[in-house]
């Protein structure tokens, strides 16, 4: 039976409800990894046996599987090969085998990353987060429309181009990214912290005025083509919101 760890407190925000399976026969390492991930806010199932690991991986739609290679009853490579016949769940391989051919074998069977033992637990967390970010970005991109139209404002994500009344708006790539986020969420007020992460791809700092600068220049360019000066409004203490009117 899988051992489940659920803790409500963790050190930094992470995507909610990420479910991870850890298949590792070293009981001490298994417990360390599961406790660490649980404390980071993940839902974690922990298994020590190969056959049971495969059964669990096939039965549950996990966001990520951490898979040891040397396991009792079935080795990790066989689990990975069987899993890839029916699922594309991201897999991070753990192994004491650091040889190049072992890494190549794991990656050729469909592993997403490979970490050799002994490893630093902080590095493990960073690799997990990197895999989940990539998967999340792919899912988000797949669900995101390529075009947005709000009255006379039209955005084309493939062209990275904005149009107002069919006329192109001369904006930079960052300004387009900013306008896209505001347009995609035009019914909501977007916080500075969210825009820093989604547009500038860094943490918000109250001393950093970059976002304000980009917003100011974007406003001026929208006004220049005929949009209201209030098209991007500042909601005091909350963030920014896009308004498009005739």
From TrEMBL:
CC terms in the record's Gene Ontology section: cytosol; protein-DNA complex
Location of the protein in the cell: Cytoplasm
Residues of the Response regulatory domain: 19-132
GO BP field: regulation of DNA-templated transcription
Keywords recorded for this protein, A-Z: Cytoplasm, DNA-binding, Phosphoprotein, Transcription, Transcription regulation, Two-component regulatory system
Occurrences of domain OmpR/PhoB-type (ranges): 145-244
InterPro entries xref list: CheY-like_superfamily (IPR011006), OmpR/PhoB-type_DNA-bd (IPR001867), Sig_transdc_resp-reg_C-effctor (IPR016032), Sig_transdc_resp-reg_receiver (IPR001789), WalR-like (IPR039420), WH-like_DNA-bd_sf (IPR036388)
GO molecular function: phosphorelay response regulator activity; transcription cis-regulatory region binding
One Pfam family per UniProt: Trans_reg_C
Protein name: DNA-binding response regulator
Organism in which the protein naturally occurs: Pseudoalteromonas luteoviolacea
């Amino acid at each position: 039976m899988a051992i489940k760890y659920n803790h409500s407190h963790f050190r930094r925000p992470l995507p909610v409800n990420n479910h991870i399976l850890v298949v590792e026969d070293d009981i001490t390492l298994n417990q360390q990894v599961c406790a660490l991930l649980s404390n980071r806010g993940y839902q974690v199932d922990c298994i020590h046996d190969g056959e049971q690991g495969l059964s669990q991986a096939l039965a549950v739609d996990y966001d990520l599987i951490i898979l040891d290679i040397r396991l009792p009853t079935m080795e990790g490579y066989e689990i990975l090969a069987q899993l890839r016949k029916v699922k594309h769940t991201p897999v991070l391989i753990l192994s004491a085998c650091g040889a190049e051919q072992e890494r190549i074998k794991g990656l050729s069977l469909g592993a997403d990353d490979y970490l050799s033992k002994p490893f630093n637990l902080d590095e493990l967390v960073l690799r997990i987060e990197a895999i989940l970010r990539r998967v999340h970005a792919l899912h988000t991109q797949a669900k995101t429309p390529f075009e947005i139209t709000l009255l006379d404002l039209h955005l084309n994500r493939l062209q990275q181009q904005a149009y107002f009344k069919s006329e192109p708006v001369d904006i930079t790539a960052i300004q387009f990214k900013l306008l896209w986020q505001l347009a995609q969420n035009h019914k909501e007020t977007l916080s500075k912290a969210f825009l820093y992460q989604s547009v500038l791809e860094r943490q918000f700092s109250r001393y950093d005025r970059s976002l304000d600068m980009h917003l100011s220049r974007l406003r001026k360019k929208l006004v220049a083509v005929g949009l209201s000066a209030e098209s991007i409004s500042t909601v005091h203490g909350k963030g920014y919101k896009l308004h498009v009117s005739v």
